[in-house]
Amino acid sequence: xxxxxxxxxxxxxxxxxxxxxxxxxxxxxxxxxxxxxxxxxxxxxxxxxxxxxxxxxxxxxxxxxxxxxxxxxxxxxxxxxxxxxxxxxxxxxxxxxxxxxxxxxxxxxxxxxxxxxxxxxxxxxxxxxxxxxxxxxxxxxxxxxxxxxxx
Length: 151
What we know:
The protein is an alpha+beta fold and 151 residues long. It has three helices and eight strands, in the order E-E-E-E-E-E-H-E-E-H-H. It has two domains: 4-115, Homing Intron 3 (I-Ppo) Encoded Endonuclease, Chain A; 118-151. Helices cover 32% and strands 26% of the residues.
């Protein structure tokens, strides 16, 4: 059974999202057409409305809206930064509420590293080590400059 909940965005109360990932205009009952973003593969929709002779435009990511409306938030939601994501092995275009979960960035990072090949992992860790070395050098140079330290 498909359930509908209104969007939580200001000025866009006349739109609703379903637990199956469909978006509709509650004024006329029409289903809004969605698109797939090429870069991320996520399903989205652009909504616009004229308020006080100004055009408001907002991009709605269906995954986030379904998670906000239908997926239970973790107990420590306000303490940690959670993002909605698809469960492991589920396509990004499948936006059923049962296929979406809230996850922290560290969980997502671990999941993505597990997917990466050994070569990609080594390249990534080497890149991060170089980045950290350069950061440390810059930090020590700045401290030395502040203290007027000369070799």
